[in-house]
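hey so i finally got around to running the thing on that chain from the lab meeting. sorry it took forever, my laptop kept dying and i had to restart like 3 times. anyway pasting the input first so we r on the same page abt which one it is
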Amino acid sequence: MNMRRHALAFVIGTLNAAPAAPLTAQNPQRHFTEGVEARFARSQPIVHYMLTIRDGDTTGFDVEMAVSNAPDTFRIAMAKHPEYDDRYFRYVENLMADAHVTISPQDSTVWRIVAPGGKALITYRLALPPSTLPRAAWRPFLSRTGGLVGGPHSFMYVVGAELAPSHVEVVTSWPNISTGLTPTAVPSIFYAPNAYVLVESPILVGRFPTWDFSIDRVPHTIAYWGPPGRPAFDTTRFRNAVERLALAAVTLFGRPPYREYVFQFQDQAFGGLEHHNSVTLGAPSELLAQNPTATLSETAHEFIHTWNLMRIRPAEYVGVGYQQIQPVPTLWFSEGLTIFYADLLLRRANLPTQDSTRTARLQTVIARYLSNPGNSRFSAEQVSRVAYNAAPDALGDYSVSVHQLGETLGTMLDLIVRDATNGLRSMDDVMRLMLERSGGPRGFGTADVERAVADVCTCVVKPFFAAHIRGAQAVNFNQHLALVGLRADTTSEPVARDGQPQADARLWAWNPPGDSLLSLLVNNPRTVWGKAGLRSGDRVVSINGNSVRTWGEFRQILGRARIGDVVHLVVQGRREREPRTVSITVTGYDRPVVRITEMEGATEKQRRLREAWIAGSP
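ok and heres what got predicted. didnt touch it at all, straight out
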């Protein structure tokens, strides 16, 4: 396919669908010296890394950190990721330095270095922890034919010199190296302009195929690692789908905000993690053999984060650091609007989606909202603050997905903007304005989102934000759907599989650190378990006379329960001195079913807005 012709056709179609906002540069410079990557400063340390993967060794890798031009005393640390702090400082071994250098730990993630003359060669080994398959796609691994290294799990940095550039040499006998780090004339050496980019650029190594494409002459690479003998799949269809998705995202925001981009797909893995110009994604070959587009939704979500999270950055995301970040009240926007666009951009690119139409998607969104009483008990900001780095029972007997709640609220805001502007603008314009205003050092808060929406629609949105973002008022869906001539009717029906009612198994458990007993997670007080008096935080002594110590054991016993069975749990509450026995007769349960239809007597404006919304027009 001719990439330039395809891109031109896509953009022309988009421009014909609705007026386009003027495009502006996403990385404006204020002086020509800002284009020089490394500036001179006598006070700035110089850091170089060498990461060595030894042939046949799948247990870990070695890192050499050469520091010069530093103070006589400085500190090094391992970074905490704002979402997934896997605490890989636990796996640092053999931390050593030159004979004239002393190293002493300050806490679990920070070490004090005394190096007369400000020069030190520091070495350590990262011993990889045992892992089970499938593994999380963002965690490092090594196999006989490849692995994932680098990122916050591998590199320490000089505290106080977070803006110091560095070079990274990857020593390996494998032929392929895929990373978002800047390549140099030497294929095994890469450049990082600062410590943030260093730890936000994982490195995929091994033997694997790659595919390239360009958007607006910006190169994109798809790398796919899999073990020998993996199931074959249609790589052409897989590659083309990723390209079409990327083009849809670039068309939305105006241009790529990166020099180049790398998709790092891995077999035998799940999930994904966004970075500033790369993404690590699990893509099981068995799944792709059945459907080459099976991982598109996850790919879309993580890729759109390149803009909405990495550039449109919450104020609490302050760059690389070794301390846990403050709770983030705006993740409903960063995660929820990303989910919103993951679905919408797949539609605009004519790629498969989970729901057949936008109306069907909205029915699913509303049904999920209504099925969870926590959505109308906690504000979007409250839910956002406990989305990461909080205990699973942070909301007590409720659990709310910031992704689902944010998608719901983002959808309603899109309808408000379309109505107020007579269809001339949409959430697209809000996203572009947020990118322009909050894509730099300042970051954004809820007030910035509210201001951007109000400025785009030139309407009053304060009541919406007060009710649903800062407050926990239930959403009146028909009030907002009426803006585009739609209405939602809700009924309930028993949850069934193959026509058979399913038992209410909506009870979870987890292992709190330092506790040998599981703790319950009720997550919904309306379940048969919540109605029986069980509470999140109750410690599990036994189930049906069986002592359970892991989530797998707990789920196995609970999963065997059928409607009418009696389950006996011995639990002990946080403030109870003695355990108590709770006997629960298992029942089925209902779920809300939402059906969206066209309003009778809709105006011409409502019909026009409805048609544009259903079509996914900007």
